[in-house]
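Fold it.
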Amino acid sequence: MIQQRYPEASLTVAADGWLRPELEKLAETLGLANTKFVGFVPFAEMPKLYDSADIYLTATNIDNMPSSITECMASGLNVVTTPGGGAIPFIMTDQETGIIVKTDDHEAMAAAALRLLAEPDFAVQLARNAREASKRFMGNAIKEQWLTLYMQLANVTSSAAELPATWIAKKI
């Protein structure tokens, strides 16, 4: 659907899995041009892959905490996704930090991608918002949240800042 409007559009499918042969056959059946299946991508190579793309599409049916989405947000790469079984709306806000479409709706996914290509100001604003929102998933922010949660579960009354690092390492 995207290549009907943008014949030069390319699709890169990263990662490997049991569906890869089926997806390769589907791409061939649909006559998709400029499609590459690159397989497993080492973590150190992911920034280059994200930088080479305009939009990240993921049509997951369930994913508890897709790090690829938070990585894309931090990279300033626009994301079009499904709700992923309910977890993704806690990571992204539809129409604010990315676009969330209904599960199993390839037409909605294509329409969202086409919108991002047709409305560059909207795409830039989403990417900026996503970049800012991604900070809540970075190391120090997450560390403090986990420490607070662990202390609540352990009924510890001290704050994480008051505990010695050795205590945290040994007790938690």
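Residues 139-171 form one domain.
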